[in-house]
Amino acid sequence: VQLQASGGGLVQAGDSLRLSCAASGRLSGSYAVGWFRRAPGQEREFVAAIRYSGTTSYTDSVKGRFTISRDKAKNTVYLQMNSLKPEDTAVYYCAAGNGIILSSVPRAGAYNYWGQGTQVTVSS
Fold first, then answer.
1. How far apart are CA 43 and CA 40, in angstroms?
2. Which of 16, 49, 77, 88 is deepest in the core (most CB within 10 A)?
3. Residue 114, CB half-sphere, CA atoms under 13 Å: how many?
4. d(CA 55, CA 106)
């Protein structure tokens, strides 16, 4: 499975962006597709994920502002980011994996496949 992330850019605080993660290849079983981010000088952190069942998960700091969704026909997962803040500035990575149980969704180590990352910069 190969993942291609896109949609990043430079925006102002309060603006919106939509990231896309296009997957080639097929995920099976209890798969999940997630978004992680890494800000300069910080550890990679979980942002959001969607499981095969459609269940979504979010880190607390983005709840109510970010929405993860998928288009099965296009094999693409989206991350709609609204009300962006300067602290959202980071490189965003999409990741996917098979056999990810709900409790493992926020763990980067649970994901087998990673995209190349897309830069999101939010100016104040």
1. 8
2. 49
3. 13
4. 13
